[in-house]
Amino acid sequence: MIEKLIQKIEETKAPIVAGLDPMLKFIPKAILQKAFAEQGETLEGAAQAVWEFNKGIIDAIYDLIPAVKPQIAMYEQFGIPGLMAYKKTVDYCKEKDLVVIGDVKRGDIGSTSAAYAAGHLGRVQVGSQSYAPFDEDFVTVNPYLGTDGVKPFVDVCKEHNKGLFVLVKTSNPSSGEFQDRLVDGRPLYEWVGEKVDEWGRDHMGKKYSYIGAVIGATYPEMGKTLRKLMPQTFFLVPGYGAQGAKGADLVNFFNEDGLGAIVNSSRGIIAAYQQEAYAAYGEDGYSQASRKAVEDMTADIRQALESV
Amino acid sequence: MIEKLIQKIEETKAPIVAGLDPMLKFIPKAILQKAFAEQGETLEGAAQAVWEFNKGIIDAIYDLIPAVKPQIAMYEQFGIPGLMAYKKTVDYCKEKDLVVIGDVKRGDIGSTSAAYAAGHLGRVQVGSQSYAPFDEDFVTVNPYLGTDGVKPFVDVCKEHNKGLFVLVKTSNPSSGEFQDRLVDGRPLYEWVGEKVDEWGRDHMGKKYSYIGAVIGATYPEMGKTLRKLMPQTFFLVPGYGAQGAKGADLVNFFNEDGLGAIVNSSRGIIAAYQQEAYAAYGEDGYSQASRKAVEDMTADIRQALESV
């Protein structure tokens, strides 16, 4: 799956992932009104609005980008109907040949991590039958519980040609509270990064491992250090746009081959029409505003990479 | 909700939480066969078997214990039907007046953590209506992302009288890989524990905070240190039974008032009939085997606490 991701990045020339993190406040009124008219102001109504909003965006941008990253929390908040919309979104993106990174940040111990891994990346056995319930291509994983929390995910990835992005240094303001604490003179995130590199050696593609890392765009200096520390690890880089990082900040996350990182933007893409720069598209043109935002983001990152 | 938990611990004299972590291999053949006959060997069939298995156990033990802890991974692995069985289990346990600790180990940043919190503990707004999609009483939370990952959960807890158990020192063998690393001469889990204590002061019950901590029974010496460091924090203590900890190991996790901790056992209770000690109950008597296992566990812990 890392090979497919790299191939699609090379085809689209866009090391970009669109974060499908729909909040109701991002959704144009016409879509909300239609969904509520059909389903009422219910969880089902919210889920329908989310799905129709997503579909509009996916249809408008799928040819420009290699991958999407639906954030499951934004669906899970609407309970079972919300999770059905998540599944529908995953399936539809796969139909469009997009690589799907499920941003689930799961992580537990032993058989429990194995259950998450089976449900999201692998197959679950029911009597003589087996099923792939969510079937994302990659998921994000939290490393706080250590190797026996992550290893069951790696095992399932190996069996089913899937991949992970393990949280190393997150993009949020207080990520440093624990992640930056010095252990034997080096920040914890470096130790976590080394473990990710170690787990990843067990499941290599041609040049990069199937086991990637999440490194926030908001910390470019740390990205530089980690890039050297983990040359074979692909980075999923959140924090571009709404969280403040710009194209020039991103150079540190890439290798000299122009690969090694994929940059996420969520509301910067999906709620582009609510920003001044794309306001002219209006609510009706929300999906075309998203397309333009993807084109601008791609140009910004390409320019930054070319000017190195 | 922490007051309700404490009141129920005092009523039942059992500082015990039953981990509802059903795996198909724990479920008696008769239940599986009936579910597969009605629903086929499908995700729906698995979910029905899980639900009927749970119901039998809940009916057999609800009067003996204050709380249950369903592990959402064991349901999520069966996709949407599995998550429907999770929700049904949560609702049924609440009908039986059990405190429900959703073992979801979620954790993200800002608005994403807020979405998880709304979906699991609070309410989500849809137009003019609001809903409580999962509505557990407590959930477990992963602290790796720091204060701005946990604070949105705390805010929702305050608004809705709910609580958290934040991972501090987990029960698994490799929990020490990151959690035990020394930061300024003290292990990381102590720093995390202090933060949990700090977050918890913002949402206090009479004596204990609504914001608790997960501390593995398998590390009793560390439990002792943390007990002193966090006197107002309630501990959720996994690792009893199947993971190796015994009653005598647990004394360190309690305060002198006999409170301050609730000990989880999962397969030790729900799959008791598969153990030699309870094999005489047979598959048909699986729920009564679970009842006996709860009684034995309660006696073991009470004896240990009284012998201090």
Describe this protein's structure.
The structure is a homodimer of 308-residue chains. Chain A is an alpha/beta fold. The longest helix of chain A is centred in the C-terminal third of the chain and has 21 residues, at 286-306. The first copy, chain A, is globular. The first copy, chain A, is 47% helix and 17% strand. In chain A, helix 3 packs parallel to helix 5 (79-95). Chains A and B meet through helix 3, helix 4, helix 5, helix 6 and strand 4 of A and helix 3, helix 4, helix 5, helix 6 and strand 4 of B.
Largest sheet of chain A: 8 strands, parallel, barrel
Greatest interface (CB-CB under 8 A), with counts per chain: A-B, 72 and 72 residues
Total DSSP E strands of chain A: 12
What is the average per-residue confidence, as pLDDT of chain A, rounded to a whole number?
96
Number of helices of chain A: 13
Order the strands across the largest sheet of chain A as they lie in space: 1-2-3-6-7-10-11-12
Multimerization state: homodimer
Dominant shape of chain A: globular
Which residues of chain A form runs of ≥5 with pLDDT under 50?
Answer: none
**Which structural category fits the helices and strands of chain A?**
alpha/beta
Portion in beta strands of chain A: 15-25%
Please tell me how large the radius of gyration of chain A is.
Answer: 19 Å
- Helix content estimate of chain A: 40-55%
Distance between the termini of chain A: 29 Å
Helix-strand string of chain A: HEHHEHHEHEEEHEHEEHEHEHEHH
